[in-house]
Write a structure and sequence with these properties.
Number of strands: 7
Number of domains: 2
Strand content: 25-35%
Distance between the termini: 46 Å
Order of helices and strands: HHHEEHEEEEE
Radius of gyration: 20 Å
Strand order of the largest sheet: 3-6-7
Largest sheet: 3 strands, antiparallel
Helix content: 25-40%
Structural class: alpha+beta
Shape: elongated
């Protein structure tokens, strides 16, 4: 397929979780986004995978059908721009309906999940690790000119309730950074 050619990706009614009531919204989005999705994702198979992810978003969250079509288009294109697939399973990014206080309309909003942050960091050469700290884990954090985290997880026993999270990132030069 040449750069100037695009393939129309159609809604598949046999997709698990397919919701017929959102068919027109998904078809509208496909028509509005088709060319942009090919430009952003660059591959027929990725576009098909993305469209399937869009359909599943509607199946898993029927409130999305109440969102303005413009906000849905912009939100799904934002996902594609980052090359992240909206999914509650992968946690890369989410499409969330919210009530706009000024207009009263329901709009879709793009939100990157922590797995999406890890994916994006990996693309620029960061090795990212995210961890949950539980009540019964041993945890110490030293800040200042020599920052350091020590986390000993109680992996073989009851860890208790989650009390915090942190992430570390190591760049291609071996420099370690962290955030809690």
């Amino acid at each position: 397929m040449s750069n100037n050619e695009t393939k129309e990706v159609t809604v598949q009614s046999n997709v698990v979780g397919y919701v017929p009531t959102t068919n027109t919204t998904v078809q509208f989005l496909q028509k509005q986004c088709n060319e942009s999705l090919f430009r952003l994702l660059g591959d027929v198979k990725l576009v098909e995978k993305f469209v399937t992810a869009m359909i599943l978003c509607f199946a898993r969250n029927p409130k999305l059908a109440e969102c303005t079509k413009e906000s849905l288009r912009n939100t799904f294109l934002a996902c594609a721009e980052f090359k992240l697939f909206p999914s509650n399973i992968t946690g890369q990014c989410y499409v969330i309906p919210y009530q706009n206080g000024k207009t009263g309309e329901t709009e879709a909003q793009f939100m990157i999940g922590y797995q999406g942050m890890i994916t994006l960091g990996g693309r620029i050469g960061l090795d990212i690790d995210a961890q949950v700290v539980y009540e019964k884990d041993e945890f110490a954090c030293t800040l200042g000119t020599s920052p350091k985290i020590e986390h000993k997880a109680n992996v073989f026993g009851d860890r208790g309730n989650p009390v915090g999270v942190y992430a570390t990132a190591t760049d291609k030069h071996g420099r370690l950074r962290f955030s809690q």
